[in-house]
Specification:
The complex is a heterodimer of chains A (644) and B (305). Chain A contains 18 helices and 27 strands. Chain A is α+β, with helices and mostly antiparallel strands and 644 residues long. The chains are: A alpha+beta (644), B mainly alpha (305).
Chain lengths: 644, 305
């Protein structure tokens, strides 16, 4: 190493450091938007047919619009892309008239075909939309969504052929239509009736091992599933063609384009909340030309995306911010008063609160619990906070397959021995309400049946009757909760209440969120904390979870009578009779208590006093399109509980 | 040259080992990427899994994933933020983490060296004791405490800096300080010790006897020799700054990579976890290599081999 070179080294290093620091501090200046809000975690996608979750909901509602839109105050369905609609007398056929002025952000008209395209896309099993089941109310939608496992011999089917592996991933292969003759299993024998019904439920069986024989214009042809890449390389065995998938013929699904501005849905059952559901993003339209030109997810990039809502994205910085600008082609653009909106992705609620308090955010929808309590009881009272009861329930689920929790008397004793007031008033203290039912009160026309309130004497009596007088001989059990300060504190409180009141020994254990879900699913718990957010304002969103073997049941509980009530409610066209059936079901749930309700959540919105068009509602749904800013304070705030 | 080549081969081996361990560990933990609060019907779940090759056997997944990463440099699509490829996430996040890291480290070295040298020069004085106390506190305090105090002082009491965010240099000062503080303390301790060691040598006395000005003795004769341990510390410090930035990134809402390092694992976002772990391995390996290389320039006694 030459000495000259060595003496140069410090200088080179110093210059390097100066440049590095210079590079690090160079900023990008950004003018603040008209309205900025903290939207929790980064949204998973801008594609309305793929996403789920609260941050996504806020974002997608700003970019797209469905046939109807919710009134920002009452959440009642009001005309969106459809200017009017008719509902048949049996409440199974909905005909919508799409407004002529509805436009995509590229200027083309929004038509009935766009809605049909979007419905087919979310139901296509290859799209893997997690909210596809929100569209299952449409006739045969569930069967189309089920793909090759949902078709039966005799059905009209469509066979989607393979495309080259490098084709854009949103394109469909050539579609052949015919009648399904038979399905052959891996052994080459046709499967029918019960054998087929069992086989399609067995997830260990790969559809790739089956052969679908379809009658195409009088000729029987055999098809086997194979992915595009191997299908392009391998020749199929004799007489067989490769295909991507076999589905029910989409023409069997209850969606019909009558003309470019008239669309019709035929439903499986009279579904009273269907109109409301149309304002929920899984049923929004997407622009097929854009989706198929760029593929997924590239079509959602700000430079490519075509949307039909009040705003369009200008740029997106991952986990920082997405800037939205007003869409001048939106049909109701005259009533959108914000021209730019910044959607901040801030994971920490404390950081979000700091941003709000220093004026960098105009709306936060989550506040750390201790801070919320202080803000709520601040003197003088703050105008920017107003907790509101929500359609969310906090409850404990009981594993009814384990002794002694399989005994209904034990479950009742546990519920009776709870002092819920200690939890809501003593610990939470933000106006949360005690829950004696799974469905929160406040749904118009539905008065949820309740379980019995606190009664220690009765609880002790029931426990003695079950064979555990004063808790003697009662096995120790464990409360499982997902790791979170609030859940931990509540578990400790309940543990003490049960130990004190019933003389039984209770432990608690926490698991990180995803692990706890998997424990619940495998019934690997005694009692577990759970929360549920209603997807739509109807008791069914809570009650249909507890049908025997339901996806979300996870308690091992099931009663044929309960299943019958839920099924009958689904078919009932009369809203009053329907609520009666659902109330009977909930009565049963509250008598048997496979779940023990604890409290109902409240909203935690912090909204700057100059924000207008922001209303409290039980689904905590807030639409940016309705929001505007009144810095002079010339109009009253509809949100605030105290008027300045 | 041979030294560089050998390091390159070791890099490949390290990456492979890290890949294999990460791959195995992720699949050994209960819960998968598509376990959500609202569980997914089996058909839809199957399709989600197919999109990420999760329907294949673990061996096939292992080979497919290795092939994709090694041959195409493609880290796949995020399982959680489905809109973006892991490569995009890294491309957007790494410069931010790097900027934060550079500032934190420059701050750590700058402040650390100054206090270390001052401490050593005035050994035993009140200033020395005070600075050493500060250094101990700096090491002991976790960064969220430092961050909390800083926010309270410089955001709410004296509104000098914004509370959080990214884009403006003013938004960088507090996070870089909080991230760098423990390392500044560490650098101060190391430089003080090695400075004291260097100052006790005979050539220092010779220089002083010759009448060389004290500042020159300290900075040229002393510091130059005391610098080497500090440089060695830069490798691990860079690793700590990059992988340990989670807390600071969350508190100051900085969209860097450090957060993914932890959250991706919690959300079972297997592709992002893998991507971030591999990128960090690569970055840290390179930094350590540069540190080793710089020895040869700093110290004539060191030969690369």
């Amino acid at each position: 190493m030459a000495a000259a070179r060595r003496s140069l080294f410090p200088w080179i290093a110093a210059i390097g450091v100066v440049f590095a620091i210079g590079w690090a501090v160079q900023g990008t200046h950004l003018a603040p938007a008209d309205f900025t809000f903290c939207n929790g975690t980064e949204v998973k996608s801008l594609d309305p047919l793929i996403v789920t979750g609260q941050p996504e909901n806020n974002m997608v509602n700003a970019l797209f619009e469905g046939l109807i839109r919710w009134d920002p105050h009452t959440l009642q369905p009001t005309p969106g892309v459809a200017e009017s609609w008719e509902i048949s007398d049996d409440r199974r056929t909905y005909t919508y008239h799409i407004r002529e002025s509805a436009r995509w952000s590229d200027g083309s008209p929004v038509t009935a075909d766009d809605f049909r395209y979007a419905l087919r896309r979310i139901l296509d099993p290859r799209t893997a939309g997690q909210y596809a089941y929100q569209a299952w109310y449409v006739k045969n939608a569930r069967r189309y969504n089920g793909g090759g496992r949902a078709v039966r011999p005799g059905d009209l089917v469509e066979v989607e052929l393979n495309l080259p592996p490098d084709a854009i991933n949103t394109l469909r292969g050539e579609v052949l239509r015919g009648k399904l003759v038979r399905i052959e299993g891996a052994d080459g024998k046709p499967m029918e009736g019960d054998a087929l019904a069992v086989a399609v439920k067995d997830e260990s069986i790969k559809l790739e091992s089956w052969t679908f024989v379809v009658d195409l214009d009088g000729r029987e042809r055999a098809f086997c599933y194979l992915d595009d890449a191997p299908a392009s390389r391998t020749t199929p065995p004799g007489g067989v063609r490769w295909c991507r998938q076999v589905l029910l013929d989409f023409r069997e699904v209850g969606v019909e384009v009558i003309d470019p501005h008239t669309l019709r849905h035929t439903l499986e059952n009279p579904t009273p909340f269907f109109l409301t559901l149309l304002g929920f993003y899984p049923l929004f339209p997407v622009n097929g030309r854009c989706v198929e030109k760029f593929g997924s997810p590239q079509w959602t990039y700000p430079e490519n995306i075509v949307c039909n809502g009040p705003f369009v994205p200008l740029f997106r910085r991952i986990r920082d911010r997405t800037r939205l600008v007003k869409n001048d082609r939106y049909w109701d653009h005259d009533n959108v008063r914000l021209s730019t909106v910044d959607v901040l992705a801030v994971e920490s609620v404390t950081t979000a609160l700091n941003l709000y308090l220093t004026g960098k955010s105009d709306w936060n929808y989550d506040v750390p619990a201790p801070a919320l309590k202080r803000l709520l009881h601040a003197d003088p009272p703050r105008t920017d906070i107003n907790p509101f009861p929500l359609l969310n329930t906090y409850f404990y689920m009981v594993n009814t397959t384990r002794k002694p929790l399989d005994d209904v008397r034990v479950r009742r004793a546990l519920s009776l021995a709870l002092d819920r007031k200690e939890i809501t008033e003593g610990f939470l203290g933000c106006g949360e309400r005690i829950a004696y039912s799974l469905t929160p009160p406040g749904l118009p026309g539905y008065d949820p049946p309740q379980c019995a309130p606190e009664n220690l004497a009765e609880a002790r009596r029931l426990l003695a009757e079950a064979g555990y007088p004063e808790g003697r001989g009662f096995p120790t059990f464990t409360i499982l909760y997902n790791t979170h300060e609030t859940h931990q504190a509540i578990a400790q409180l309940i543990r003490k209440q049960w130990q004190r009141g019933l003389g039984i020994t209770v432990r608690s254990r926490n698991e990180e969120f995803v692990t706890s879900l998997s424990s619940q699913r495998q019934l690997n718990y005694d009692i577990s904390r759970r929360g549920w957010v209603g997807d739509y304002p109807d008791p069914n969103t809570f009650l249909d979870m507890y049908v025997t073997g339901g996806e979300q049941n996870n308690t091992g509980w099931g009663r044929p009578e309960y299943d019958r009530l839920i099924a009958a409610a689904a078919e009932e066209a009369d809203p009053v009779a329907r609520f009666k059936l659902l109330a009977d079901a909930e009565r049963m749930l509250m008598d048997e208590l496979p779940i023990i309700p604890i409290y109902f959540y409240v909203s935690k919105n912090l909204v700057k006093p100059y924000v207008r068009g922001f209303y409290n509602n039980m689904q905590d749904a807030h639409h940016v399109r309705a929001i505007w800013i009144d810095r002079e304070g010339t109009t009253p705030s509809p949100f605030s509980r105290v008027q300045p | 040259m041979q030294f560089c080549l050998r390091r390159l081969v070791w890099l490949a081996i390290t990456l492979w080992v890290v890949f294999t361990i990460t791959f195995t560990l992720m699949r050994a933990v209960p819960g998968g990427p598509f376990d959500k609060e609202k569980s997914v019907p089996p058909e839809i779940r199957h399709n989600l899994e197919r999109r990420y090759n999760l329907d294949k056997s673990p061996w096939q997944q292992y080979w497919l994933e290795m092939e994709r990463i090694a041959l195409h440099g493609d880290l796949g699509y995020c399982m959680n933020i489905g809109d973006y490829s892991v490569n995009t996430v890294v491309r957007q996040g790494l410069p931010i983490s790097a900027a934060l890291g550079v500032l934190a480290l420059s701050f750590a070295v700058g402040l650390g060296l100054i206090t270390g040298v001052v401490s050593a020069a005035y050994r035993g004085s009140a200033a020395d004791v005070l600075l050493r106390l500060a250094a101990t506190v700096g090491i002991a305090l976790p960064s969220f405490v430092v961050a909390g105090i800083c926010i309270l002082l410089f955001v709410f009491v004296v509104p000098l800096f914004p509370a959080a965010g990214w884009g403006d240099w003013r938004q960088l000062v507090l996070p870089a300080f909080c991230l760098g503080a423990p390392y500044a303390a560490e650098v101060a301790r190391i430089s003080r010790t090695s400075m004291l060691d260097a100052l006790s040598h005979d050539y220092i006395r010779t220089a002083q006897a010759k009448g060389v000005p004290p500042v020159r003795v300290l900075l040229v004769h002393g510091l130059r020799n005391a610098l080497l341990p500090v440089v060695s510390f830069l490798g691990p410090a860079a690793a700590g700054v990059l992988t340990g930035s989670l807390v600071v990134e969350q508190i100051f809402a900085i969209p860097g990579l450090g957060t993914y390092f932890v959250t991706a694992a919690l959300l079972r976002d297997w592709t992002v976890s893998m991507g971030v772990v591999l990128v960090y391995t690569l970055v840290l390996y390179t930094l350590n290599f540069l540190v080793d290389l710089s020895y040869a320039f700093l110290d004539p006694r060191v030969k690369l081999e």
